[in-house]
Amino acid sequence: MKIIDEFKEFISRGNVIDMAVGIVVGGAFTGIVNSLVNDILTPVINMLTGKADVSDLSVSIGTATLNYGLFLQAIINFLIIAVSVFILVKAVNTLRDMAFKKKEEEAAEEAPAGPTQEELLMEIRDLLKERELDKK
Question: Domain segments of the chain: what residues?
């Protein structure tokens, strides 16, 4: 029973749930990133370089064939995906920061202006003076 209770505690933590949501959203996001790379970026790179697909490169050593082109293509795809995700995350963070700044400005406009520190200190000073006069 102790293991079951520990598992319930572990699974109900907010971090685990956040992580699960992140994994599900990340899985869905994979399709978007793959489409961006395969359908938009790779054709542009092919147009500029003439050929960006190196997956057919290989070398035969005896009876073995080393398909180093597949490895190089995986590296190229990774770099394209990494740059694409970096740009996307940067854009999302910029939009989020702009929205957060706007909310801060709206909150600052709505918040009533309270007394300044100097005004509070003068009020305390005056109250102390009154108190001294009352004692005399």
Answer: 1-50, 53-136
